[in-house]
Amino acid sequence: MTVNRRRFIQGSAGLSAISAMSLGRAVESSATCVEMSLSAPQIEKPLFIATWPFGKASCEAALQVTQQGGSMVDAIEQGIWVTEADVKNASVGIGGIPNAAGDVELDACIMTGPDHNAGSVGAIQDVLHPISVARMVMEKTPHVMLVGDGAQRFAFDNGVSPTDLLTAEQRKRWQAWQAAESVKKPQIDEDHHDTIAMLGIDTKGDLYGGCSTSGWGYKIPGRIGDSPIIGSGLYVDNQVGAAGATGLGENVMRHCGSFLVVEMMRNGATPTEACEQAVRRIAELDPKNLGNLDINFIALSKQGGFGAAGTSQGFRYSVASPKESRIVSAKAMTEKAIGPEGGNRK
Ligand code: GLY
Question: What is the pTM of this model?
């Protein structure tokens, strides 16, 4: 897959994208265009956004669920199912890169704005749809998070059937990784990017979100990243907006990244500005410099505006509403490209 290294240019790119849209031929546009359309009355709800181009199929599935009368929670869950079930996706669900012991360990969470409820699972094995287990934790227990064997037992006790998540291809790669010290470098690029975070707003303006990942490839068994941590990989505040993260979880979870993005929106920032301000705040505190953080955020405001920003060139996200379904380039905050050398998972 070719990495899109087009530089984000505030203003001119936005204007050209808008004129392209007005001609009805925009497939991919810049974050500026999105921001400018934030308050525009033509935004149609429900609307879903998700990390990465692979999120497009998930957003479209979520939209379809609502169009067929399903709830927003159903939409987030079933939208994320699409990516979790994609064996070719090496960073979410079945086909995900395993941990150092060769076991695929998954993290997921879900959050509902109207009742500020949440459920999550961490380091769960042998479950095809961790997002559904997160939903069950939210709906069937007084807890927010279950991890490891306990999460798995809970899933099986609640009717989930075991699934072998390690594909033959990932087993072969893991064996090669074990054999060669030189390849012990997790990768992040267009083919190895991680995590689906999905945010949705319904026709009433209520917000929802979900997140699912197999996490850092060849991680130490038991490692849990940002994705299932409420406030880190995902946060939904029904008064203000919602945010989700992708990238190197350790650099998100030490800063409560998604919560931070939402707080920036509370202070008046647009979704893209909020993502950018959160990344800058993280970079100010973090010993790593901006180019080495390898983090990206998407955000959705209470008004239905959306945007994104990340530390490297090449982060894209997906948007679907009754009006359109498209892939958008996020604002990149450095010249560095996402890729095996662009990441920081050493
Ligand atoms: N962002 C996913 C992870 O680091 O696990």
Answer: 0.86
